[in-house]
């Protein structure tokens, strides 16, 4: 089977981390643990928290296949993800729409799993986290509608209803037949 790579993107509160956790045990799946310049105690996805100085040193040493900034933080996808894809694994990582063009150059055959939910659902989920002010939530909702780079296969996953339904859609998207021309 050919190796594949998937970037999971979507607005804050869409449930990206929850869905990634739901598919984490699939055979042949290499789940990427991002490196982020925030304390691990901040919660959310499983990630490696580092200082800005440590992130910069790792980036300078070539430790990241991808690195970008968003929301005042630095994010990195370890270079080991490229090696995993080259070894035949299906690579899955939580990405950002801003880095998709770069990601497509680094990961051959990259596909995008776009996780969506209605604005009311996003607002309720963000408020339930308790990490952001009302103003911060409003700003995130304003950024919820975005364009993706052209020429990338995109599979939309609606996560507005039952978690089991969205998780089943993500599992199906990770199957080789999901990227046939009729489905891309």
Automatic annotation (TrEMBL):
Single GO biological process annotation from the record: 5-phosphoribose 1-diphosphate biosynthetic process
Catalysed reaction equations from the record: alpha-D-ribose 1,5-bisphosphate + ATP = 5-phospho-alpha-D-ribose 1-diphosphate + ADP
Transferase listed as a keyword: yes
Protein name as it appears in the record: Ribose 1,5-bisphosphate phosphokinase PhnN
Gene3D superfamilies named in the record: P-loop containing nucleotide triphosphate hydrolases
Biological role: Catalyzes the phosphorylation of ribose 1,5-bisphosphate to 5-phospho-D-ribosyl alpha-1-diphosphate (PRPP).
Organism per entry: Frigidibacter mobilis
Binding site for ATP: 10-17
Residue ranges constituting the Guanylate kinase/L-type calcium channel beta subunit domain according to the UniProt record: 2-174
Keywords: ATP-binding, Nucleotide-binding, Transferase
Record flagged with keyword Magnesium: no
PANTHER family tied to this protein: GUANYLATE KINASE-RELATED, RIBOSE 1,5-BISPHOSPHATE PHOSPHOKINASE PHNN
């Amino acid at each position: 089977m050919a190796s594949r790579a998937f970037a999971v993107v979507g607005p804050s509160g869409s449930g990206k981390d929850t869905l990634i956790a739901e598919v984490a045990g699939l055979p042949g799946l290499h789940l990427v643990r991002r490196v982020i310049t925030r304390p691990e105690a901040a919660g959310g996805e499983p990630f490696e928290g580092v200082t800005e100085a440590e992130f910069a040193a790792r980036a300078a040493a070539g430790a990241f296949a991808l690195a970008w900034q968003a929301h005042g933080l630095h994010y990195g996808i370890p270079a080991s993800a490229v090696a995993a894809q080259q070894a035949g694994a299906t690579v899955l990582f939580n990405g950002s729409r801003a880095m998709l063009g770069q990601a497509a150059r680094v990961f051959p055959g990259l596909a995008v799993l776009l996780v969506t939910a209605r604005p009311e659902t996003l607002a309720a989920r963000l408020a339930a986290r308790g990490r952001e002010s009302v103003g911060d939530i409003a700003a995130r909702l304003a950024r919820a509608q975005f364009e993706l780079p052209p020429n990338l296969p995109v599979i939309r996953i609606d996560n507005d209803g039952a978690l089991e339904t969205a998780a089943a859609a993500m599992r199906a998207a990770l199957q080789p037949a999901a990227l046939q021309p009729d489905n891309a």
